[in-house]
Amino acid sequence: MIPLFFQKEIILPAATDDDRRADDQRIRDSLDLHPLAIPLGVLRKVPQTVRGKDRISCIIGRDSAGFRLISIGTGRSCSVALDIGTTNLVATLCDNVTGRDLSTLHVENPQIAFGSDILTRLHHAMSGRAEELFSVLVTGINGLIARLCSDVGVDQQDVHGLAVAGNTVMSHFFLGLDVSTIPVDPFVPVVRTPGFFDASELGLAIHPQALVYVFPNAGSYVGGDIVAGIVASGLASSAETSILIDVGTNAEVVIGNKDWMLVGAGAAGPALEEGISLIGKRASKGIIYDVAITGKGIACSTFDNAAPEGICGSGMVSLLHELYAADIVDKSGAFKSGAKNVETMNGEQAFRINCSGGEGLAITQSEISNFMKSKAAMFTLLLVLTRAVGISFRDIRRVFVAGALGTGIDVRKAAGIGMLPGWEPGIITPLGNASLTGARMLLAKGDLLRTIDAISDRITYKHMHDDPEFMKEFLGAVFIPHTDPSLLKV
């Protein structure tokens, strides 16, 4: 399997009276890759690079048209897999010669200065600040790549490619495209399949001829991060009907197999995303992923068994389940009068999570209410999409869970609050950051370009923004577990 970016060393015969081929032709013949594009920036460096040398190192990239010579005479070559999230930017630096991952880092998306949610940023962009949103995002990405390179001693000019996955709005911001048509009827993006670009035209501080691939989107609210997640899950190559659930700022659900795929999105993610709730954090050391409330008190499970510092998506699922089971909240998620550990904070009721002694952390009524809407939207998406293709929950053979919800989720508790159907835990596969994984897989296997094109062509996007069935079913799902619990049965 040929990577998306790779090094190839060639023996270049010297020009003679009997061999008057131009430099570029001798390079093409020696590489034997067809078709091969050689950018002007590379051609300008050819004479001083190849004259007097017989062995030349070439860095090659693959694009939709064939192959491209990115750099010549370079011994080091790296590429970056990048997930552009609404809240965080996450990237992995890869060695194109050895195939090894060198470093992975995440930083906060600097666009948060314009608002933590997509709609607020869209409003800013549509109010004349689009260039600022583009500029601050590219600056943040350049800073992230600079840190990755610095950590392992790589020159940024030796970064020859990027594979970029993000939701539709983030991809448009990254490319500096107009976003004004995305949030308004008929909800149409500028581009569905962005494809390849030169790093220089995007303002990236890496090799100017580096190739940048941007994953295609499936609709205004189902982006390249979901297509990358489909690649990571293997759903598109399986004969079995499976579901991919990705919960971040939005919740996206893909249902299908190798023959067909239906995808929809809903605003289910805010209560799970780092930076939205006061104690919401991404899964890492010291973050709560499970909670138990008994007569003896509150017990929390944290990553690396460290002192609690926040709570991730799976921890929120567990907490709501335990609050309901302990009769601390009612079916609507409202705190009951006189419930233990409930107090007033800044004029609002809140539950004190007293793990490991001390004052601990707290979750407010408004955050519980937000999560109730999140879990309702999540289940309603699943219900409406399965009905749309004429199958039931029992027909699903695999369930892949990515995003903020995918690490440490207790399937029994998720079903207990009505967020997921009552699937057996054995069919659930957590994927973590599937967007980043899919982008990294493409770097390792360039032939996945054809797979991605096929996925993009096969996806049917079901718009949920004003879907009447979604709105009707959502109302019953904003209760624990549901106004009609029989819908949760598998």
In CATH, the architecture of the largest domain is: 2-Layer Sandwich
Distance from first to last alpha carbon: 40 Å
Strand line-up of the largest beta sheet: 7-6-5-8-10-9
Number of domains: 4
Radius of gyration: 25 Å
Question: Which labels suit this protein?
Answer:
13 helices; Nucleotidyltransferase, domain 5; single chain; six-stranded mixed sheet; 490 residues
Description:
- By secondary structure, the chain is α/β, with parallel strands linked by helices.
- The protein has four domains: 5-72, Ubiquitin-like (UB roll) (Roll); 78-214, 2-Layer Sandwich (Nucleotidyltransferase, domain 5), CATH 3.30.420.480; 234-270 and 371-488, 2-Layer Sandwich (Nucleotidyltransferase, domain 5), CATH 3.30.420; 284-365, no CATH class.
- It is 31% helix and 26% strand.
- The chain contains 13 helices and 22 strands.
- It is elongated and about 95 Å long.
Task: Lay out the secondary structure.
Blueprint: E1 5-11, H1 23-31, E2 36-37, H2 40-43, H3 46-50, E3 55-63, E4 66-72, E5 78-84, E6 88-95, E7 101-108, H4 118-152, E8 159-166, H5 168-175, E9 195-198, H6 199-202, E10 211-214, H7 224-233, E11 242-247, E12 251-256, E13 261-266, E14 287-294, E15 297-302, E16 310-311, H8 313-325, E17 342-345, E18 348-353, E19 361-364, H9 365-388, E20 398-403, H10 411-416, E21 428-432, H11 434-444, H12 448-458, E22 459-461, H13 468-477
Parallel strand pairs: 2-4, 5-8, 8-10, 11-20, 13-22, 14-16, 20-21
Antiparallel strand pairs: 1-3, 3-4, 5-6, 6-7, 9-10, 11-12, 12-13, 14-15, 17-18, 18-19
Helix pairs in contact: 4-5, 7-11, 7-12, 9-13
